[in-house]
Amino acid sequence: MKIRDILDTSRKAFPSLEIVPPLKGITHNELIESVRPFMEFCPKYINVTCHRDEYEFREEADGTFSRHLVRNKVSEVAVCSAIMSAYRIDAVPHMICGGNTADEIDNKLSDLKFLGIENIMALRGDCTVGEKRFVPSEGGYRYANELVEAICAFEKGADLFSIGVGGYPEKHFEAPNIETDIENLKRKVDAGADYIITQMFFDNRVYYDYVDRCRKAGIEVPIIPGLKPLTTARQVSLLPESFSIDIPVELTSEIRAAGNDREAVYRTGTDWCIAQCRDLIAHGVPAVHFYTMGKAENILRILRECF
Ligand code: FAD
Questions:
Q1: Of 18, 76, 149, 254, which is the active-site residue?
Q2: Are 185 and 167 in contact (CB under 8 A)?
Q3: Which domains does the chain have, with CATH numbers?
Q4: What is the mean pLDDT of each run of 10 residues along the chain (307 residues)?
Q5: Cα of 80 to ligand 1 centre, how many Å?
Q6: If 90 and its partner were Cys, which of 45, 147, 190, 297 is the partner (CB 3.0–4.6 Å)?
């Protein structure tokens, strides 16, 4: 089923989950079992992130260097296909502009159609290691709105996919200001995106303010809040650095007060997320998206307490 139809027909907030593809070497069965605990909560769909291929140079016997593609994870499309056939729920592969030509994107879309995958999360992707700015592939797409256009134009606009895109309540780090970033978000919606999933945030006021600004800018599609519970004290500095987001003073103080007690830190992060989630549901959000990042226990507790 297309996510836009799920969103159109659902009457109350539901949870969706985002997982990272496992490392290669995992068996099909192990993958299916790793997702099983979430099935208790009947998620309507599961997103699977996509990661840019990396290359390494190996020295040959004659002293020359050859370039090799290094892919250490199972592909997002394989993971989606396995989840869909095991659990009969939808799975949403993420697709990025980075590292793909327009032809490669078209070939990927053909594979999705073949597998019966009707949903895509369309993103630009980040720079590769060593790049300061995002560099599109030759003959590829520079911005996510171009990728959305390409997906919509696939097979002469046959409307095969429902498309989600990313939004940044605290501004995408490259945008000069939030207004410009929202104008660019609108380009993705105008190009055909059906809904937006936000970057993680830890202060709900930031999300409510963002939704207001988006509505004033003429963006009418659902804006699904993305949440991630803090799990370690280190994340207080790591998450702002990696995702250009703020951690509120109250949460920082609570984590600090937990000191070296890892369990207390984990509990504090989970409790904070539960409070965020309850408040979002009370404010009538259509769904809550959880970045699981390979952790199941805390997310399961949050789902149990909130849904
Ligand atoms: P864009 O929408 O293209 O925006 C990028 C920047 O360019 C912004 O500053 C924007 O304001 C500006 N911009 C956009 N369009 C234009 C335009 N037409 N002209 C001028 N400026 C423009 N990354 C991965 O590699 N794999 C994943 O699986 C993944 N999943 C994600 C899931 C979610 C929910 C989110 C929010 C992010 C995810 N990311 C993922 C990270 C994402 O790829 C990065 O944040 C990336 O830097 C921006 O992607 P985007 O699609 O938002 O880009």
A1: 18
A2: yes
A3: 3-306 (3.20.20.220)
A4: 97 96 95 94 96 87 90 95 97 97 98 98 91 92 98 97 98 98 98 98 98 98 98 96 97 95 97 98 98 88 96
A5: 21
A6: 45
